[in-house]
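Let's do one together. I've listed all components of the complex below, 951 residues spread over three lines.
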Amino acid sequence: MTNDTPLLEARGISKYFGHVVALEDISMDVRPGEVMCLLGDNGAGKSTLIKTFSGVHQPTEGTLLIDGEEVLLNSPRDAIDRGIATVYQDLAMIPLSGISRNFFLGREPTKGVGPFKRFDVAKADQVTREELKKIGIELRDTSQPVSTLSGGERQSVAIARAVHFGAKVLILDEPTSALGVKQAAIVLRYIAHAKEQGLGIIFISHNVYHAYPIGDRFTVLERGRSIGTFEKDEISIEELERQMAGGAELEELNAELQGSRPSGSEGSANGKSD
Amino acid sequence: MAQSTTGEETRVREVGVLRRWLTRPELAAVAGAILVFAFFAVVAGDSGFLTGGGTATYLEVAAQLGIVAVPVSMLMIAGEFDLSVGSMVGAAGMIIAIAVSQYGWPLWAAVLLSFLVALGVGFFNGYVVIKTGLPSFIVTLGMLFALRGLTIGFARLLTARTQIGLGDAGSGSLLTSIFAGSIGVFSASIIWWLVLALLGTWVLQRMVFGNWIFGVGGDAIAARNVGVPVNRVKIALFMCTALSAALLAAIQVLDAGSADVLRGELVELQAIAAAVIGGVLLTGGYGSVIGALFGALIFGMVQQGIFFTGVSTDWFQVFVGVMLLVAVLFNNIIRKRASEAR
Amino acid sequence: MMERGFSRRDFLKAGCAGIAGAAVFGAAGCGGGPETEGAGVAGLTSRKDIRLVMVTHGSASDPFWSVVQNGLKQASKDLGVEVEYRAPESLDVVDIQKNMEAAIASEPSGIAMTVVDPDALSDLARQATGKGIPIVVLNTGQEVWEEVGAITYVGQTEYDAGVEAGKRMAEAGVESALCINQEQGNVALEDRCNGFSEGLGGNVKELAVQGTDPTAAQNAIKTELNNNSDVDGMLTLGPQGAIPALQALKSTGKGQALKFATFDLAPEVLQAVRDGDLLFAIDQQQFLQGYLPITFLTTYVQYGVSPVNEVATGPRFVTRQDANDVIDLTKQGIR
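Okay, and this is what the predicted structure of the assembly comes out as:
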């Protein structure tokens, strides 16, 4: 465990779009070297929350802190400059372009000066090859199109890119949702590796079975509100799943339908009920 | 094909070198060019197609289209279309002729003016596309009509004519040799074409701007998120297409000694066709300038080839259309065969 | 003279004479409405109320029709009448029909029109004359102007002009010729080539080129000339064909052996005639085709008079002797 100042913290963040409440009073944080899983069913607000973290949206209320300092992120570029890297589901990879071209898009290494300044393709290839090796992909030719990689590999390359360019916080939006088990395993292994390097990782998923093995803490969102943040040793997979599926509500519904049935106990240390 | 080595999970097929050469966007266009050339060599070989003079005729036509096809293909790789280039050719030519013959401007100043106007039109195209978010297809289509209309309107307003000569201003001028001169039977436009194609390839393959073009065409939002100045890239490319149209106009005006309001008709579609034959995807993000070079070559051969075959020119358009379709299909088959990566 | 005082009867006579005189004067003055300065004859209506519509198949970007329009505008200015010009961008008879219908519906004083497709347009012409709108046919429609009830015809049929051109070329010794069509699909141009073929005696090959691309046209003509060594004559149908053809001739070096002529004028064309590169250029004087219909319609509407026969405006052959004089007029868009 390193120092305890969260890399990224949300305090009382709310986001309204007109009269639509997308987020209401969300507080959560991620510390160095930990994986914080952000869980919730579809429409819970995960997407809006990470867009707020990555500078696409600005919170209507509440504050965002980076390294303990209050900040206002006006654009995605702002977030990137401060070390918050987001890997969206579409990966931001151009399938028909080469792997190293993709890796260095927007941050191309150059050689030469003035009108002779050119894209240092050799260096880009070399660095890409090294980075890919670190995540276990060995290629002789990094100008192969990205489409020649499998889904899990592409996801890993996207993460490796973020890490290489100095991300301190990695926000991964449903990285394993479109992958099969074996491919998902590749990605999870790489996330563990990144975690060891001291990055803070926010892992968004609606699949508890992928999130649970890798997560250290879990925040569950439901309809724009946080149901609670749980340490791994405080909660089981089954309980998490129940929470995500609207556990308390389902219990009530069950009770209504079946007459009077005693509801199960809600065990949560610092959870808030609706 | 080598296998990678880390665990059974990671199995990336190393695509063999030969395979990858076959999937290069240009190669299919080269194959198409060879096919078309072979066709004419067989069918019309004894009527001058294979002579130096004959070659010069289709090379000149290919070169003039190619000059515009280079930036048009780069713009298409970035995901946008410019349908106004044809009208720009007509407009730029008119500007030169009117400035020289009506207002007595020196030739170099008139040409410079036409280039500046072209840059302005290109900037306008790009700016409107970006600000409104409308498809560039529509914006530049509107420009196609507007520019052509302005050309006709102003030509008749200022000169009461639609075809305007340069008079004596063109003969003997250095500019005329630069733009419309020739080396032996081969016209200067061929050199312009090759130079532009090399320049375009250099930018695409070796410059940061080129990587940005691919990025913008592949996924503009993602590119913007990693800091690529998407708007600047697009506007710059629109300015380049317009400028190339003005260059073509200058070449044609200095060669023919006159301008005409209808010059450049259909050039926009021909340039897109040349780019597509050359491997540029209509959806953007992929393609090459060398491919467009061969696409223009195919176009030139097909357009001029009919005159060597002796077939009645009534069938000219059928001829062009059919040969183009064949070239594109052939191109497609080769690329599909070779690119079984997934 | 007997001096006697004015009697009441004298006064009455003088008064009646004066009133009658004033009435005559007044009638003469009121007859034609507000008088223009120095206008001699009042007629049935006044110039200011005359609005004429010209409906043709010639687009604004065509150099030939550009001159027609100049004639139209000059007539409008000279005669003091209002004119409108309607033509589609490219030859499309359906568009012309719509233009004609709109013109008739607007109830003009008269319509000048070309009848490029008699099947499609004769009925509309008769509809107009049926409604009392006088018509003058110009340029195309020489065979039908009488049956549709037009007042007269102004122009020159393309076919006849082609025949004349062919005859002249045959006189100059041409036996086998090329006819270069720079705009396929243009009926007028096809008529020119067909007439040329008849006039020359049959040995004519028609070559279509893309008039809007001078380089392609030039190279096409070059190739054709190189492959056809027994061609000794060439006719182009407009400046868009003539100018590339001149260049092709220059680069193949066949200028001397080949007799070359063209339809329609342009400064470059006339310079070539003057320098001997072109045998002749055919001037249809289409300026008159724009000017005269307006004149005839105006005089008909206002004074009820019109020519009894058709008015031929061409062909006028411009040869080396007169080329120089014509050049300036061409630059102004008059010839």
